[in-house]
Specification:
It is a single chain. With 175 residues, the protein is of the alpha/beta class. The protein has helices at residues 15-27, 75-80, 86-96, 108-112, 126-134, 159-172, and strands at residues 4-8, 31-36, 42-44, 50-52, 55-56, 67-70, 101-104, 121-122, 138-139, 144-147, 150-153. A seven-stranded mixed beta sheet has the order 5-2-1-6-7-11-10, with helices on both faces.
């Protein structure tokens, strides 16, 4: 059975932080599904890349997916603005089950809403690191930080390392 990676996404995502990991995941033989506010909706990245939402967050079941990818840009901030907190709840299920989570740049912002970062080690873009520390995380300034099945990265400059860590983690978690 092929594993499927959920990608939570809203408008103004950092284009390459979606396209590069998604391509690496698919080239390694895994499926991807984009989850957003409304199935069929088109979301647009900061630089014009368009992505179609496959599944709406209201009907997405974390147990249907083996891992979670959270691209950066302004998308994570938009996702955190969901009044029902559905994206944080969705991500929390992956933390609870120790299923892989991959978050880059501003992506780790969504993880703050899980209330499960206390004692975890991760990285992110500079301007969200203090927020992560305030949520109880240990923050490092490294291209990729792997804490169990939580894989985080800083910026598009780190995508080669991030993508390798994603594929390695997926292979290590095959069920």
């Amino acid at each position: 059975m092929t594993q499927t990676v959920a990608i939570i996404l809203g408008n103004d995502f950092e284009d390459i932080e979606l396209t590069s990991p998604k391509e690496a995941i698919e080239e390694a033989g895994y499926n991807t599904v984009i989850i957003g506010s409304e199935a069929g909706e088109e979301v647009v990245g900061k630089h014009g890349t368009k992505a179609k939402v496959d599944v709406d967050i209201g009907s997405a079941e974390p147990s249907d997916y083996s891992a979670l990818l959270i691209p950066g840009g302004f998308s994570p901030d938009h996702l955190r603005g969901d009044v029902e907190g559905r994206y944080g709840t969705f991500a929390k299920a992956f933390i609870k089950e120790d299923d892989p989570i991959f978050a880059i740049c501003h992506g780790p912002q969504v993880l703050i809403d899980t209330d499960d970062l206390n004692g975890r080690t991760l990285t992110a873009v500079l301007n969200v690191r203090k927020d992560l520390e305030n949520a109880g995380a240990h923050v490092k300034d490294e291209s990729v930080v792997v804490d169990k099945n939580l894989v985080t990265s800083r910026t598009p400059d780190d995508l080669d390392d991030f993508n390798k860590a994603i594929v390695d983690t997926l292979k290590n978690n095959e069920k």
